[in-house]
Amino acid sequence: MEIEHTSIPGVEILHPRVFGDSRGYFFESFSQREFDRLVRPLCFCQDNESKSRYGVVRGLHFQTGEYSQSKLVRVVSGEVLDIAVDIRSGSPTFGQHVAVVLSGENHIQLFIPRGFAHGFSVLSPEAVFQYRCDRFYAPAHEGAIAWDDPALEIDWMLPPESIILSEKDRHHPLLKDCTCLFDYSRNLYPEF
Question: What is the spatial distance between Cα 124 and Cα 67, in angstroms, rounded to a whole number?
């Protein structure tokens, strides 16, 4: 696995070594030993998968307080634009985002640390999206910011008339109005 650093420290792009021949391909999609060595020591506890059709936008989601999550995300089939937004108040990159195209063809993964909101848009007819979390889902501690907050300047790579949202994702606050942000000066990984 090779690590590509992004414009926001801590958000990392992972490129697995893919071995292919006339039969197909093989790659190691996750190794705890390699991840701990190259990214950071972390214990993942929950894997999730979603299937979505073209135009779906999910996000921008996070969990608050002691339930905040790191995510390691990838696409098994199809193509998405994956977004990580820094929502750590006081951070030099507060409000900035990283956008990466993930696909079943490129096998790229994105690591999103605690203190970030996450979302994605589906660019292919459908996509199967997987993400690994280091804390369990805690519905009472869900947080979110508006996917279309103009201050974030996110290009979701979709025409506006094609965007499909859940009812819930239509009503999140703008970043400037969100009351459950993270504090950049606080250690979000006290167990390590």
Answer: 32
